[in-house]
Write a structure and sequence with these properties.
This protein is mostly helical. The chain has 2 domains: about 160 residues, Tetracycline Repressor, domain 2 (Orthogonal Bundle); about 130 residues, Up-down Bundle (Four Helix Bundle (Hemerythrin (Met), subunit A)). Helix content is about 70%, strand content about 0%. The chain has 14 helices and no strands. Bound molecules: protoporphyrin IX containing FE and farnesyl diphosphate (FPP).
Length: about 325
């Protein structure tokens, strides 16, 4: 992990040995557990597990055999990989995280946890995830998971400081979990059947663009203070954010319909994806017409509804 900054002493770790009444209270095991939990980003890990399960289900549906052990090992291994990626991300970003209210209380940003301990945790999670994916899934699944961790931690994360392009780079690891789930069952990703997994990848990758453009705008002052090169920092008017949001929603609209055209989802999926895509696009257009926080928040909330709804209906209305 050459681009992860070197460990620092945890200078402000609270002391449990002092008797000074004004001293911070002891750092208990429960505090450490809570910090570990923050480090592994449980909410993103939950979504990663769900989307990995979708890729797994698509492979099973196309006739590949599976076992419960394979399913549990794949979901567990991918979850551990996501946790590892999240730890490395926070290790790299501890200084910029410390400058933003949303992230300042994270354990490494707040210097509650020693950097060495976090890196050991991240590496243990990564190795355990790799072992589980190899043992219960396939080597291809573990290879894609390794690529996902590395591209998130070593390419996307450093790029956040350099260019708004980081958003499109980050969309790749964010969209790979269903591909990992599919590869864990089939061991191959370039057969005609695998198109289903790649379409879910495409929908997720495109969806992340308005998702994060809205967040970037909502937190633009924080990102600017931390000198992160988001669209909304480079162009505080929001123009480049909502233009990119509209353009991506325009491409996402047909991508959401592709499962029906490719024959692995039906017309209910088509109708729901069309309606959701039009609402998502409409809210991005409204953002352009009435630039501001309220419009950006609407796009963000729409993103939180769009993805689960569209993915659920693709699975329910399966062919
Ligand atoms: C380029 C990729 C992505 C970026 C930069 C990004 C960034 C973020 C940020 C900064 C937040 C916090 C917003 C807040 O605290 O108000 C957030 C929230 C959220 N993101 Fe993403 N995200 C990305 C991809 C994803 C992916 C792939 C998923 C799931 C499949 C996802 C699911 C969520 C959910 C459910 C929330 C809302 C609740 C929460 O914070 O847990 N995001 N995203
Ligand atoms: C299997 C596996 C390894 C999955 C990993 C998937 C993954 C970590 C997706 C994250 C997508 C993403 C770019 C989130 C934002 O990070 P951020 O650093 O911009 O968010 P932050 O500001 O909250 O830290």
């Amino acid at each position: 992990m050459s681009s992860v900054p070197p460990p620092e002493p945890a200078a402000s770790l609270p002391s449990s040995t002092t008797t000074d009444a004004a001293a911070p209270r002891a750092y208990t095991l429960r505090d450490r557990w809570a910090d570990y939990k923050t480090l592994v980003k449980p909410s993103i890990t939950r979504m990663v597990v769900i989307t990995t399960a979708i890729g797994f289900a698509l492979a099973v549906r196309s006739g590949h055999s599976w076992t419960w052990l394979m399913l549990i090992g794949t979901l567990g291994g991918t979850a551990l990989s996501c946790m590892a990626a999240s730890v490395y991300n926070q290790a790299y970003e501890h200084r910029t995280d410390a400058m933003m209210p949303r992230t300042a209380k994270r354990p490494l940003a707040a210097k509650r946890l020693p950097m060495g301990e976090a890196l050991a945790l991240g590496t243990s999670l990564m190795l355990a995830g790799q072992a589980m994916l190899c043992m219960f899934g396939t080597p291809l699944a573990s290879g894609v998971a390794a690529f996902t961790i590395l591209s998130y931690a070593l390419i996307y994360t450093p790029l956040k400081r350099v260019s708004p392009i980081s958003l499109y780079v980050g969309a790749v690891p964010g969209a790979l979990p269903p591909v990992i789930g599919y590869a864990a069952v089939t061991g191959s990703l370039f057969t005609p059947d695998a198109a289903a997994a790649w379409i879910i990848f495409l929908i997720m990758a495109l969806w992340q663009v308005p998702h994060f453009l809205a967040i970037g705008y909502m937190y633009r002052k924080d990102y600017a203070a931390a000198d992160l090169a988001m669209h909304a920092v480079r162009d505080p008017s929001g123009r480049s954010s909502f233009r990119n949001s509209i353009l991506t929603c325009l491409v996402l609209l047909p991508a959401g319909l592709a499962p029906t055209f490719l024959g692995f989802a039906g017309w209910i999926s088509f109708s729901v994806a069309l309606l959701s895509g039009l609402v998502f696009l409409g809210l991005s257009i409204q953002w352009a017409m009435r630039p501001g926080l309220t419009s950006a928040r609407r796009v963000f909330f729409a993103s939180l509804i769009y993805l689960p709804v569209v993915l659920a209906v693709i699975m329910i209305d399966a062919r």
